[in-house]
Structures are given as C-alpha cells and as structure tokens.
Amino acid sequence: MGKEQGMNTPYKDLISVIVPVYKVERYLCRCVDSIIAQTYTNLQIILVDDGSPDGSGAICDDYAAKDSRITVIHKKNGGLSDARNAGLVAACGSYIGFVDSDDYIAVDMYEKLYKAIVACNADMSVCNFRYVDENGNNIEERNNALPVKDEVIDGITALTRTLDDKGWYYVTAWNRLYSRKLLQSIYFPDGKLHEDEFTVHRIYSKADKVACVADACYMYVQRGGSIMQTGYGIRNLDAVEALEQRFEFCVNLPEMSDYILRLSQRIYSMLVEAGIKLDMHNAGCRQRYKELKKTYIKQCRQIKKLFTLRQWIIDVAVFEIFPAINMAVFKRL
C-alpha cells in the first residue's frame, strides 16, 4: 500500500473501516471520499449495502471498481447493527473503525488515532467529533467545550465517563479506533436503537489503555429523517434496556459502586421521562415499560445500601407504588 504520507515509517497495520449503507445516496460520496483520502493509506474499506432501495448500492460498486481497497457487501435489509456485524465478519485488519454513511471524517483521522494507540501501546483510541448540518456547516451551539482531552486513561475510567456531561462522546462507536481483540465476540444487537449503549461497557472492560485525542476528527451530520432525529416512541426504551444490561454487567465489578449508583439514577430519570412521553394507551408500550420498570426496581434492591434514605424513598419506593407522583414532580423540574 506504499509509504505513510504523514509518518516516517511504512504503514504496518491494516485498518478495516466498516461503513453501513442504507438510503444515503445524497451523502455517500462525501463519506467514502473522506475515507479514501485518508493520510493513513493501509485500509480495508468495507461498504455494507444493507438492502438500500435507492442508488446507494450502485455507488458502492462504482467505488469498488476504482479502488482495490474497497470491498462491497450486498445484503438484505437488517438494520444498522446487522450491517456492522456483517462488516466485522469480513474485516481483516489489526484495527477496526466504523463510519456512518451520512457522516464523514477529517483526512488525517485514522493517522491520528493510530499514532495515539502506538505511542502508548493502547488498546483503542477515541477523539472528539463535531456536529455539522447537511451541508457540512459547523453547528456552533453543539460544539462548545468538547469533552475529550489529550490523555491516556484505563478502560474503566472511560466507562465511568459515559454518564458525564456529554458522555455520549465516550459511547459512540464511530469516533474511535479499536484493536481487533477488543471486538472479538462483540456484536451489535439487531433491531435496537442506541446500539452502541449495549456494547460499550463490554468493550471498555477489555481495554487496559484508552488513548484520547482532543482533535475533532469526525463530522456527525444532523439531518432530518435519520434514526436519531425521529420522535419519541417505544424504540427509545431500547436505551433503558441497554443501561439495565450494563448494570447487570458492572454491578459485581470492583470499585464501581459510585458508577452503579449513578447508572441506577440515570435509568430512573429515563423511565420517568418515558412515562411522560410514551403513549401508554398503546398496549405494547405499556407492557414494555412495565417490564423495564420491574427490572429497575429489582436492580435497585440489589444496591439498596448505596442509596441515601431520601434517594430510596423518591427513586424507588414512591416510584414503585405511585409512579404518577414522580412524573408530576419531573415535569416541574
């Protein structure tokens, strides 16, 4: 693949970049062009056409005909997680990255992330990202005080930051580079919204070192009609389910009591919000909400000693018996 343009030594490690593709005809070229143009050239670019009904699949094939680094997978529609998983099966690289097909990346993103890993023998690296509109214009009000700083932390510290202000910068799958070993036996859950929330704790628990890069190298495009821009509905409960699964994973980890308590309180807030926003006349919404609420109360009983009496009364006891009171209070906050 030639010599590195930004470093003095040849590219030694193959990076597999997985791009799920579905109904993004308007944005796809900008995305793929940004990957092709990377200063780190030793790439395997995997475009996963997830049964896209527009011309996206043909665009993928055109790119593959022009660049030998590009592999195209055509499959029936299975959703974002299924497309990522298909890409993981095909990935050959020592390192793996993800790019969503309506987003794009800085020309030196993978060089910076790779160099950060090599410099400290880390297991993964993570960078900041910027919110941009469909035309690539910076959305200033959403890009203040970017949370990721130049530093090296351990995986558990990274995990605890997922609940901080702007903690989603430590959750998303695409603003980072993974050592292949971290993703062994890791698959994104099919059919779920907030799929990254289901996997991030399992990945961080394997990482001894996480290299953090302050540069905002990933451009997160905000567009109407995308998965994350739709209204509140039953699929938003996937986020609650993900955090409840994370609770089960973390509850027995050493020195995690503070995080577990914060996690429990985050679940509580999300359940109260769901109780306000969900259509409880819908039997499906009502039943799933009831199941998640039951799990939350059961988990709280596991860690009752971590609550103050006031927290226990408000967050658990009252919520179990009179959830409507909590919802009324929440509306006034």
TrEMBL record:
Molecular-function GO terms, alphabetical: glycosyltransferase activity
InterPro entries: Glyco_trans_2-like, Nucleotide-diphossugar_trans
Keyword Glycosyltransferase in record: yes
Keywords recorded for this protein, A-Z: Glycosyltransferase, Transferase
Highest taxon listed in the record's lineage: Bacteria
Residue ranges annotated for the Glycosyltransferase 2-like domain, each copy included: 16-185
A Pfam family this chain is assigned to: Glycos_transf_2
Entry annotated with the keyword Protein biosynthesis: no
Protein name per its UniProtKB record: Glycosyltransferase 2-like domain-containing protein
